[in-house]
TrEMBL record:
Organism name: Periconia digitata
Bilayer-crossing regions: none
Name of protein: FAD-binding PCMH-type domain-containing protein
Lineage, opening ranks: Eukaryota, Fungi, Dikarya, Ascomycota, Pezizomycotina
Residues in FAD-binding PCMH-type domain copies: 121-292
Keywords recorded for this protein, A-Z: FAD, Flavoprotein, Oxidoreductase, Signal
The organism's place on the tree of life at top rank: Eukaryota
SUPFAM superfamilies: FAD-binding/transporter-associated domain-like (SSF56176)
Pfam families tied to this protein: FAD_binding_4 (PF01565)
The family this protein is said to belong to: Belongs to the oxygen-dependent FAD-linked oxidoreductase family.
InterPro entries cross-referenced by the UniProt entry: FAD-bd_PCMH, FAD-bd_PCMH-like_sf, FAD-bd_PCMH_sub1, FAD-bd_PCMH_sub2, FAD-linked_Oxidoreductase, Oxid_FAD_bind_N
Length: 564
């Protein structure tokens, strides 16, 4: 189903004196073209975007008359050195300078300082555009096409590496003003704007005693997490976040706003379930909402004497406990705290207000050095799990996956602690390695509504994601810290190959810039994703003009694996 592009109802905000472009623009005639023409035209095409697609005309249809913006009018189709200057000043003319932050302004610095990883905050876009409606996102995509000014999209800004959701010299589209959250009257669908963080969603829905399948930590963005997969405490029950989106509102490369569901565009719907930022800009997620009262959960810390017992418990949970009770979730992370030494943090959740569920018996028998497990609302739990997470420092994330195997659990933490001395003196270092089971229940959830793009065969499960992350203070330590992660992964991969428990899948949301998650979904899925992309985006706008993060056919963002 096509949604028509509404013209900006209040007309353009005309330029103030400080505008970059002459202010004497009369734009009232800019909306003359019948808006239904675009929708009708697109439907009539046998291909989604015709080969003679004219960006200028699409902009007119979207309410922007290029003739009225001299810089745009003068453009030929190819890029010019001033492409982004023109694109940014055009957006300022159309939507007001207050919605376009430029370099040197205090708003711009505040914006960049708010990325979770300071490595992303160091990236300097030409401008930051803050749309407040899907139609404005469509105009930005078309202006980027016309000017050939590249762009990046920021949801919650938790991608760890440079360029994940920010772009040097281009337009960073911040979705922060797309903050809608509403629950349908039957409480079955929660419509959520992509500028929301999970805490916004849970706090809004908790009073209605419903929730959605989303991130575990309060501040993480709804949109990046959902587009890459999205592991929730509720995932053994319902699948990952991407398996619980009823439909997506999506701005395509040709500036059309689609309502993508399994019914309307099954191929695109499938591709959005794990395909990341490759198919368009999502301007609304319609999540399935589920009844959810208070739940039990929290984190427990263990010293190294307990490591073998915690690994036994996680192994038994992944292979027996979880299949028997889908309300339960458990993750274990190993790290090192200066002044304390090796430490394990176990996150436990239960989707009912029950502290002593049988499935958690083995965990409850262990003696933690500290515990916060208790009965909470979903929002309270998400806030609690955010405590102690550092913001605005240097960060890296990595992951690989394997079949669940008790011997490999021991091997991976031994490898981690054996290699840790290589970096342990780095200032501000906080390194972790985690085991997260991809349970039988999760794999079942993956199959809902035509399946997702992740390519995990349920018959081979349960699997687990081994994800690693670190934060630290100084640029000077970047190289050896990245190499440490690569070395641990190389060693554990080699061991898993030897013992027959290796698995290809790389989870996008924890992947580093040296990895290629999309290719890890398997040759058939990789091929299918590419063909969906060529169908809806024949000029490959989201591959070439939005170069950051994990692309379909370009390999790892940084092909140079850190090694000695
Ligand atoms: C503290 C912390 C806790 C985490 N907890 C979990 C967890 O519980 N479960 C889990 O699965 N993962 C978790 N993650 C990983 C998380 O899923 C990823 O970091 C994810 O990318 C975050 O999304 P974001 O919107 O905040 O990030 P962003 O950096 O804004 O976005 C990530 C990517 O998605 C693209 N994107 C964002 N919004 C849109 C959109 N609307 N349309 C098109 N493309 C878009 C961006 O361009 C970027 O390439 C966690 C990460 C951190 C740092
Ligand atoms: C666009 O603007 C030009 C110049 O102001 C005008 O001549 C033209 O009719 C406009 N086109 C549309 C479709 O409104
Ligand atoms: C697109 O349409 C405009 C206005 O109709 C026209 O001036 C321009 O030449 C067209 N561009 C291309 C590349 O066909
Ligand atoms: C636990 O770590 C300490 C160092 O912090 C070490 O001395 C001790 O041997 C370790 N114990 C085990 C069981 O590994």
């Amino acid at each position: 189903m096509l949604i028509r592009l509404p013209a900006p109802s209040s007309g353009f905000r005309l330029c103030a004196a400080k505008c970059l472009v002459a202010s004497k623009l009369t734009m009232k005639h800019a909306f003359l073209v019948s808006l239904s023409a675009l929708a009708a035209g697109a439907l009539a095409q046998d291909t989604f975007e015709p080969s003679d697609f004219n960006v200028t005309e699409a902009l007119v249809t979207a309410g922007v008359n290029v003739s009225d913006i001299p810089q745009l009018a003068a453009l030929t189709r190819r890029s010019s050195p001033g492409a982004c200057k023109i694109a940014c000043s055009s957006l300022a003319i159309i939507y007001g300078a207050e919605n376009v932050l430029s370099q040197g302004s205090s708003g711009y610095d505040t914006f960049n300082d708010a990325y979770w990883s300071s490595i992303q905050g160091e990236v300097e876009p030409y401008c930051v555009f803050k749309p407040s409606e899907a139609s404005q996102v469509a105009v930005q995509v078309l202006i980027s096409r016309l000017t050939q000014c590249p762009f990046a999209v920021k949801g919650g800004g938790h991608a760890a590496f440079a360029g994940g959701s920010n772009i040097d010299g281009g337009i960073t589209v911040s979705l922060e003003n797309l903050k809608q959250i509403s629950l349908s009257s039957d409480k079955k669908i929660a419509a959520v704007g992509p500028g929301n963080r999970w805490i916004d969603v849970y706090q809004t829905l908790d009073p209605d005693e419903v929730t959605v399948v989303g991130g575990r930590v309060s501040t993480v963005g709804v949109s990046g997490l959902t587009l890459g997969g999205g592991i929730s405490y509720l995932s053994s029950k319902y699948g990952w976040a991407c398996d619980n989106v009823d439909s997506y509102q999506l701005v395509t490369a040709s500036g059309i706003i689609l309502d993508v569901s399994q019914k309307s565009y099954p191929d695109l719907y499938w591709a959005l379930r794990g395909g990341g930022n490759n198919f368009g800009i999502v301007t609304k997620f319609n999540f399935n909402a589920y009844p959810q009262g208070k739940m039990w959960g929290g984190a427990r810390l263990f010293s190294n004497e307990s490591f073998p017992a915690t690994l036994d418990a996680i192994y038994n949970f992944a292979t027996k406990g979880s299949p028997a009770d889908h309300d339960a979730a458990a993750i274990i992370s190993f790290g090192y705290a200066s002044g304390f030494g090796p430490l394990a943090s176990m996150q436990l959740e239960y989707a009912q207000p029950i502290a002593d569920a049988k499935v958690h018996e083995e965990f409850n028998a262990l003696t933690p050095v500290q515990s916060t497990t208790d009965i909470h609302t979903h929002a309270e739990l998400a806030l609690m799990l955010n405590e102690g997470i550092a913001y605005g420092v240097r960060n890296t994330y990595w992951d690989v996956s394997f079949k669940v195997d008790r011997a490999l659990f021991t091997f991976l933490i031994d490898t981690f602690y054996e290699l840790l001395p290589n970096i342990i003196d780095a200032a501000g270092l906080l390194p972790t390695i985690s085991i997260q089971a991809i349970t039988e229940g999760q794999l079942k959830g993956f199959q809902k509504n035509g399946g997702n793009a992740l390519g995990l065969d349920p018959a081979g499960g349960p699997y687990f994601v081994m994800n690693m992350g670190a934060n630290w203070d100084n640029v000077a330590d970047d190289a050896r810290i990245l190499k440490f992660h690569a070395d641990v992964i190389d060693a554990v991969k080699a061991e898993a190959k030897k013992t027959g428990v290796d698995n290809d899948f790389i989870y996008m949301n924890y992947a580093s810039q040296f990895q290629d998650p999309v290719a890890s979904y398997g040759a058939a899925n990789h091929q299918k994703l590419k063909s969906v992309s060529r169908k809806y985006d024949p000029q490959q706008v989201f591959q070439d003009l939005q170069p950051g993060y994990f692309k379909l056919d370009k390999g790892a963002p940084n092909p140079k694996w850190p090694s000695s």
